[in-house]
Design goal:
Elements (H helix, E strand, L loop, with lengths): L1 H4 L7 H18 L2 H16 L5 H29 L1 H22 L5 H15 L2 H9 L7 H9 L4 H16 L1 H22 L15 H8 L2 H31 L1 H12 L4 H18 L1 H11 L1 H21 L4 H29 L4 H30 L3 H27 L10
Helix pairs in contact: 2-6, 2-7, 2-8, 2-9, 2-10, 3-9, 3-12, 4-5, 4-6, 4-7, 4-12, 4-18, 5-6, 5-7, 5-10, 7-8, 7-18, 8-15, 8-17, 9-10, 9-14, 12-14, 12-17, 12-18, 12-19, 14-17, 15-16, 15-17, 16-17, 16-19, 18-19
Amino acid sequence: MAGFKALKGQGDAKTLFAAFLYFDFSFMVWTMLGPLSTEIAESLHAASGFLMSPSQKATLLSVPILAGALLRIVLGFGVDKFGPKKTALAAQTIVISVLFYAFFRGEHITYNELLVVALGLGFAGASFAVALPQAGQWYPPKLQGVVLGIAGAGNIGVVVDFLFAPKIAEIWGWQAVFLVGGALSTLIFVMYLFLAKDAPKEVYTPRPKKVKDYLKLLRDKDTWWFGLFYAVSFGGFVGFANYMKVYLMNTYQADMSAFGLDVFNESNVKVIAGYFGALTIFAGAILRPVGGGVADKMGGVKSLYIFFGVVTILALINALIALPFWIAIAVLFFIMASLGMANGAVFQLVPQRFGKDIGIMTGLIGAAGGIGGTVLVQTLGWSKGAFDGYSAGFMIFAGIVLVAIVGISLVKTRWRTTWGVAAGGRI
């Protein structure tokens, strides 16, 4: 795409690469509990007799998302106050600590300790509020869609989780996954330390914010609109990503078991569920920069209409029709693809509207995305517990996406005739 070619000679390639790596591995760590949820639940039951209920499982999966959401505001403040690099290194230190703690506790860990570990993993999810501004500060407005799409493509880390975590857990135990995560996070810490640089003042002038600056932005109605759109796009992506294995195991276990035996000669259906989870999530992760590039070309508003429209239709199909396994996988694949591209489209618009406050806004809007993901996981867990199925959960999600589409219609003219006129990119 032309957008990628335009990056040549612009900004700082090493920092963009470091931001991608940092977010990629942070996202992998942040969503680690998703592909391990079944294994951890079985381990707790075997070791202590603790039987994790659907509600408790949903809570465990949602704590890192919610913590990441709230901590994005904190790290967004840190970006403006101390710079992206110092903020990232401090957060990464906490993440590394909880990973090794979970490994050393192993099978003796309790559910409450897992909740604390999940809270610590929230710092990995909050990396979004550091990686995107650090990359974006180096580049002009017309390239924000593709640049933030590349940095945000770190979402691919969750695919790595689903591909390898269940198999590692099968061979060495689930705690070994935390050892691998801790070792890799330490390696990324060192690489980031040497590769990443904060943008110099001649490129980007930081303006440290106070609490009143946050409150001022929260009084801006566009902050809330962007929060809604990202709660749908990123919240949908991370919510489905974290819950995907639970959903597949509860809905299509027999189909996956038969496929695993026939094709891979793999008798562990949890491993096969990880493979199919990776397949569906891969689309959303890899296509985020494509969504940003599309938005650069046709405008973020028109792009969101398309992406959200596709998600609405497919979510309703999944809710109202008992789909055969392979069709269901295709539907989930395209839902995740559309959500991933919508992520890129939202953050093609944000720097144009809030370029001078990108650190704080990335934190605030990123927080909205995390809250959206938390609500989705809890909604799916509630749907399973209340109706022994997920139709209600998908219908509620489709309804929220429709609300977002209506919201786009309400703001598009004002955006295009006010700040969009001088934004420097297509609205």
